[in-house]
Write a structure and sequence with these properties.
By secondary structure, this protein is an alpha+beta fold. It contains five helices and five strands, in the order βββαββαααα. Strands 1-2-3 form a three-stranded antiparallel beta sheet, with no helix packed on it. The chain has a two-stranded antiparallel ribbon with strand order 4-5. It is rod-shaped.
Length: 224
């Protein structure tokens, strides 16, 4: 009788071998990470406790989630997550765009309205256009000093001046669409006009977006 036949030649007869067609599978064999019960103990890949667990690769915007899978040689597990591609660092968005572990590094901070009002010698231009009006530095500073005056168009003009000064000084450009919208608004509703209803609401919303940008680093300019 051929009850003790060892087909795969691994030293274990078919009656003891859980897979007599595979010489790498027998009682006491090293368990590999391969979806096979290599050591014939009734469990599969039991030595690889992290198998199937969540993992990640990359940092910042490049971070990607995945899970631990068997390595090619079956001796370990590896994370199958593939990090994304880095992009140019975008200043002021609090995101590590270039995936170097730092956020907004080497960015030029926007300055607040208060800072530009108090530092006229730091202005990058001697005149500035808002809407379809070009203001001298003196006239623009006067508007900044009167920013608390009533009127949505007056307040929007003041904060748009500040935003443009920040952009001209090298601060991030992501605010440009809002700047363009504010310019268009002030052509229709120039400084000193009194927009009502939906128009006033739009002016207030634009001013809020510009203010948030101008105070992005810190409202008290502690980043200087």
């Amino acid at each position: 009788m051929a009850i003790n036949v060892d087909v795969d030649g691994d030293g274990y007869p078919a009656c003891d071998d859980c897979d007599d067609s595979d010489p790498a599978t027998f009682p006491g064999a090293a368990e590999l990470c391969d979806g096979v019960d290599n050591d014939c103990d009734g469990a599969v890949d039991e030595d690889f406790l992290d198998l199937g667990e969540a993992c990640g690769a990359g940092v910042g915007e490049c971070f990607s989630e995945g899970s631990f899978v068997c390595s090619g040689d079956g001796t370990s597990v590896v994370c199958d997550a593939q990090p994304g591609d880095p992009t140019k660092e975008l200043c002021g968005d609090d995101i590590d765009n270039d995936c170097d572990g730092e956020v907004d590094e080497e960015c030029i901070c926007p300055h607040s309205l208060w800072w530009w009002k108090k530092h006229p010698n730091e202005w990058p231009v001697e005149e500035i256009g808002v809407g379809d009006v070009v203001y001298t530095k003196a006239a623009a500073i006067h508007i900044l000093k009167k920013k608390k005056e009533k009127g949505a168009s007056k307040k929007l003009t003041a904060h748009l001046i500040v935003t443009k000064l920040n952009i001209l000084s090298g601060s991030p450009l992501y605010i440009q669409p809002v700047v363009d919208e504010a310019d268009a608004f002030l052509i229709e509703y120039p400084f000193g006009s009194k927009p009502k209803g939906a128009a006033r609401k739009k002016a207030v919303d634009l001013k809020k977006q510009l203010t948030k940008y101008n105070n992005n680093c810190n409202v008290y300019d502690r980043c200087d």
